[in-house]
Amino acid sequence: MKKHLLFIISFLIFFNTGLAQNITIIQNQPGISIRGLSVVNDNVIWVSGSNGVIGKSINGGKTWKWSVIKGFSKNDFRDIEAFDDMNAVAMAIGEPAYILRTGDGGDNWKIVFKDSTKGMFLDAMEFWNDESGIVIGDPIDKRFFIARTFDGGRTWSVIPKTNLPSAADGEACFASSGTNVRKLNKKEAIFISGGMSSNLFIRDNKINIPIQQGSESKGANSIAIKNKNTFIVVGGDYKEIHSTEKNCAITFDGGNSWQNAEVPPNGYRSCIEYIRKNEWITCGINGVDYTKDDGKTFYSISKEGFHVCRKAKNGKAIFLAGSDGRIGKLE
Length: 331
Hints:
Helices cover 5% and strands 44% of the residues. The chain has 1 helix and 30 strands.
């Protein structure tokens, strides 16, 4: 009897601990879709979205400053990378595609990149530090677009076409959360694709991912990295938001082999973020899921929909953002 009671107590402790996470909605801006989110630290958060909207908080999300970038009220800013409370770079998908930079907290923005090439569509940015960054875009003439910056986004250099990775017919990237390109180490970045073919691009290798693919609405949307060997990719079919079929793939050997989650996230997922130890968070249109075993099993922690989730670069806070200007915080 005593052993049985101890088992029940232990199970309840584990169960309650596993479900301790919850999402608190801290802000709403109806009519705005937010896909760009950059959390500098536990206090400084930047978001970007449709209709040229930029939001910023310097007190951990308690209050927000909202603005529309002058001259860009019709542009959709799908990614933003912030360095502090004054400096940030925002990416508008196109066409034409723009990258803007502010150095005065968002009061004024300068065009630092513009490309009107037919078919130009930027998908995501990633920065290694305050100076070195990368932006990727959909294929043009069957080559993915890539540009680099080495001065904090003030200037950008386009990689020559002959050095760009090739794309299959119908293969592209999803500009869903700014997280389909990630830094692998201090010098390298890797990215993922979707559509007719879904692949991981790492160095000179193109590795197919066991995730839904074969149509324009399917494929890998987001990748997160724990270390040089362990990555998790999420996606699925954004037209079938409740489908759990092959919506998550995990590698423990740097992409050489993959496995699907035993208990997958509860539907299509547009973003995943590594948190600590074996813990990760992922979100999509129909909710948020959490794993404590490196992606083997996921459990739902919220039915609220979000496009993007990010952990503070220098801190522990985790924020989420999505449709109707919804911003949440993981408690």
